[in-house]
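Appendix B, Record 12. Input sequence as logged:
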Amino acid sequence: MILVRYSCDKKEQWDTFVESSKNGHFFYNRDYMDYHKDRFQDHSFMVYDNDKLRAVLPANVTEETLYTHQGLTFGGFIVDSSMTVVLMLEIFELLLSRLADLKIKKLIYKCIPYIYCINPSEEDRYSLFRNEASLVRRDVTTTINLQNRLKYSSIRKKYIKKANKAGLTFSRSDNYEEYWKLLNSVLEKYDTKAVHSIEEIQRLQKLFPENIKLYVAKSDSEILAGTVIYENKKIAHTQYLATSIYGKKVGALDFILDKLINEIYVDKEYFDFGISNEDNGHYLNEGLISQKESFGARAVMHDVYQIEIA
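Logged structural output:
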């Protein structure tokens, strides 16, 4: 078995493997990963066993640390259904040996939450344990099991009713420019801005039109609220939720989320709101997570582990 550094001539093989994997995501596609290659020094690996590709690892290196991957929400080894625990132990041994040879002193490993896996895929978590990895970060994402849903809270029902009474309209939109203005005006109040620039999100949406979608609520022609959805095989994940002052008053965001949960993504397995943490997981935004939980969402962990390499 050998570990090979990713190179652009292997792009097609990488993408094909990710697409057929049991725990892949469209943002492991090289067209997505490479949009910010100027910000991260890519150091991804591909694992071959007798010329058969068995796993890929999206990764970047900063100084003497390998991350999996700083430009992605989460990511560890991407594997297919043939992966076993024993094989993963061998792969970790190979990886850690290579990193030691490269004088890399630390591995920061972001586990893939189980809700993103087609089949059970936690072989890497056991390998982390066996290699004395320490848990260095834990974020809480909040997720609805769409096939076994909990009821909305009374306040959510109230605002959805108010939005319907106000005559709001719901639709998918291609007007990212207008929505990004609303989004950044909201984020400015918290002294932050969208991770993706308008040019980046438009480019990514054109590359992945079936995975990246914008949904908005309008009053007449004015966008009052919206969210970008990252749609993967069995899960829809909200990104960049925002609402105007008037939109908040009439429940525009509740209106959108209700439509997505009950109509657009009703046949998915999960609807994920994303994390509510800061400070490497130590700070929990209780107001934000309570709002997500009021839709019937409950906690799923995003775990990050660290291995010190001798």
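The mean pLDDT is 96.
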